[in-house]
Inverse folding.
C-alpha cells in the first residue's frame, strides 16, 4: 500500500503558462473555469495518488487532482492492473479530465466538455517460449460514445533485442 498527497506554494506569479487561445482572442484570467490554473494563484491544485497490491498479480492505482480555487476535480484515473508473469499483463482503466474533450468543444465553462474515457491494454505471449507476444490497446470516449483509438500488434523478443509490428487508428480530432 502506497499513497501520497501534495500541493505547490508559489512565491510569485508565473511568467510562462500553457494556454489555448484562438487567433485574435485576448488573454483573460478565468480563475473560475474548471481545469484552468491561473498564473496569479498562490497554490496549485492538490494532487494525490494511491496504490494497493491485492497480491503479486493484481494491483489498483488511483490518482487525481482537486482545485481548491474552483472546488472542482481537475483529473482522476483508476487503473486495475494484472501481471501474471513476463509479458503477461492486462490493464483496464477509467480516466476523467475536466475540459479535456477536445472533439467539438463549444463552451469550456460547462461540464459538457469533460473527458470520460475507458482504457484497455494488454500484452500476452502467444508461444510457449514467450518469444512471440500479442499486444494491444483500446480507448473509448464514454462522454460521446466513440472509439478514440486502438492498436494491435505482435512482438518477437530474443534476449537482448526485440522487434514489434503495430497497427492501429487514432481519432483525427485529437
Amino acid at each position: 500500500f502506497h499513497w501520497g498527497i501534495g500541493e505547490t506554494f508559489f512565491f510569485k506569479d508565473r511568467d510562462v503558462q500553457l494556454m489555448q487561445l484562438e487567433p485574435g482572442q485576448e488573454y483573460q484570467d478565468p480563475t473560475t473555469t474548471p481545469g484552468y490554473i491561473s498564473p496569479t494563484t498562490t497554490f496549485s491544485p492538490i494532487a494525490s495518488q494511491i496504490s494497493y497490491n491485492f497480491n503479486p498479480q493484481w494491483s489498483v492505482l488511483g490518482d487525481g487532482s482537486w482545485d481548491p480555487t474552483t472546488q472542482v476535480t481537475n483529473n482522476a484515473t483508476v487503473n486495475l492492473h494484472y501481471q501474471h508473469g513476463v509479458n503477461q499483463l492486462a490493464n483496464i482503466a477509467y480516466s476523467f479530465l475536466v475540459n479535456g474533450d477536445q472533439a467539438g468543444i463549444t463552451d469550456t465553462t460547462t461540464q459538457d466538455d469533460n473527458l470520460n474515457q475507458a482504457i484497455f491494454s494488454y500484452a500476452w505471449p502467444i508461444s510457449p517460449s514467450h518469444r512471440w507476444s500479442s499486444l494491444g490497446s483500446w480507448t473509448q470516449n464514454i462522454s460521446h460514445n466513440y472509439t478514440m483509438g486502438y492498436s494491435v500488434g505482435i512482438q518477437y523478443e530474443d534476449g537482448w533485442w526485440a522487434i514489434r509490428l503495430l497497427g492501429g487508428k487514432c481519432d483525427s480530432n485529437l
The beta strands are 2-6, 46-53, 58-67, 72-85, 88-97, 115-125, 132-141, 146-158, 161-170.
